Amino acid sequence: MKIDTLRRHFREAYRGIVKNSWMSFAAVGAVAVTLMIFGVFVIFAVNLGSITDEVGDNVSMNVVLKEEVTKEQATALTTKIKGLPNVNEARFISKDEGVDEVKKNLKDADFTRVLQKGENNFLPNLIKVTPKNVSVSKQVEDAVKGLEGVEGVKNSSTAKELLDSVLLFKNIILVFGVALAVLAAFLISNTIKLTIIARRREIEVQRLVGASNWFIRWPFFIEGGFIGFVGSVLPIGVLLLVYQGFVKMISGGSKNANLLQMVGFGDMAMYLTGSILGIGIFIGVFGSVLSIRRFLKI
Amino acid sequence: MIEMHDVWKVYPNGIEALRGVNITIDTGEFVYVVGPSGAGKSSFIKLMYREEKPTSGVVLINGVNVKRVRDWKIPHLRRKIGVVFQDYKLLPHMSAYDNVAFALEAVEVPTKQIQPRVEEALELVGLSDRMKALPSQLSGGEQQRVSIARAIVNNPGFIIADEPTGNLDPENSWDIMYLLEEINMRGTTVVMATHNKEIVNTMRQRVIAIEQGIVVRDEIGGEYGYED
């Protein structure tokens, strides 16, 4: 395409936007809202990777052994569990080791005084089992439950539930975002339709004098893409500002500093800018295509 | 050269606009297409610039079968044909100059060439001093001349005119006819559908008369032949 022609297409696209300024404004707003939600989704999805890794470490389960199981039997059982499919690690923790572990985890809080080693130790012998990943923890639990000498299985944390709810939340945002993206595309499509109607005489003359089909279509693609682009800039800015603040807050010397390791600002800026800009322009061009196909009879 | 061989045009509502038309128009000819309203003149004209496709039969423009031309090649076909309408089809927000330049921009003529070519075309139609005027500031005759300038600015081999004097008073109509005649003298084929009896009978060119979709008369130096 010649540079003069390209310049002309941009000029025409700009003219279309200005001519239907209110409709263009509404379309930009719809794209911005959609992409804001999409951005939240991206933040979740990107961070979920690291959250899942962390949570994954905490999905280990405690296999409580029956009182009559001897140490030798427990060791044999540990080896057997290690050999099960989907098991990453299995470690025997005797009653007395259990006391040490509880006291260590709870930082020797007052009530841990009731825990005593020896005869009066009421903690059970247990085997700590870590599945290969979160998704197979249920299978591992079922397999272990059936073994001889096992009293029951207790999850050491509610990590799985947490993870499930995070995933559910992610899916809700995704569905919501897709629905909004469709809505935004239709709004853009409507804006382009108005431009096509406003320019029908020009288009008619262009056809008659032999303008190529692409020459006629290009300004509408650019107009849609531009609406998508402008609609992307606002959410990128807002989301990056919020994320930066959030990262600072999370890692700002709090005790929970290591609870959630969030993706760094630089990486997130790259993911967010790339994906939102890409999706924004895609929605814009897609909206144009809808109208061009339906209303632009060449 | 324009050729039609056994051309039928049947619209989806069943109306047979053209029924077995056979015609040959040689390069450089001036042809009037006459006939009562609804006789099929417009369909005949539209087939020539590929606004319509024939239902059956063959339409050849310089040997190219318009029915077989792929959609993306149609614009190239249309560049060889200038079309003039009764209602001028000028863009109201553009000056006379811009209306003509618009046609060159649409076919991606280099910017440098646009100004001299537009000025030349407007000079040919006698509007050198009205280039900056908007269509609303021009008379009907002047507007039609702008539309003719737009049709010829690409140097097409054919001018297809559908009732170009239909909205004009007799004086302006004659101006337009002299202009079309001059364009024809320069070698451009002119095909013009008209209801103007006086013009046809005075200028005495080839006349093709269509009635109920059939060519009923085709004579060199013919007359209008109707009383409307």
TrEMBL record, chain A:
It holds the Pfam family FtsX_ECD. One of its GO terms (biological process) is cell division. InterPro entries: ABC3_permease_C, FtsX, FtsX_ECD, FtsX_firmicutes-type. It comes from the Bacteria. Residues 175-298 form the ABC3 transporter permease C-terminal domain. The chain crosses the membrane at residues 21-46, 172-197, 218-243, 268-292. It is found in: Cell membrane. Keywords: Cell cycle, Cell division, Cell membrane, Membrane, Transmembrane, Transmembrane helix. Residues 59-153 form the FtsX extracellular domain. It is a multi-pass membrane protein. Belongs to the ABC-4 integral membrane protein family. FtsX subfamily. Part of the ABC transporter FtsEX involved in asymmetric cellular division facilitating the initiation of sporulation. This is Cell division protein FtsX. It comes from Baia soyae.
From TrEMBL, chain B:
Belongs to the ABC transporter superfamily. Its main location: membrane. GO terms for biological process: cell division. It comes from the Bacteria. This is Cell division ATP-binding protein FtsE. Residues 2-227 form the ABC transporter domain. The lineage of its organism: Bacteria, Bacillati, Bacillota, Bacilli, Bacillales. GO terms for cellular component: plasma membrane. Keywords: ATP-binding, Cell cycle, Cell division, Cell membrane, Membrane, Nucleotide-binding, Transport. GO terms for molecular function: ATP binding; ATP hydrolysis activity; transmembrane transporter activity. The keyword Nucleotidyltransferase does not apply. PANTHER family: CELL DIVISION ATP-BINDING PROTEIN FTSE, IMPORT ATP-BINDING PROTEIN. It is found in: Cell membrane. Homodimer. Forms a membrane-associated complex with FtsX. InterPro entries: AAA+_ATPase, ABC_transporter-like_ATP-bd, ABC_transporter-like_CS, ABC_transpr_LolD-like, Cell_div_FtsE, P-loop_NTPase.
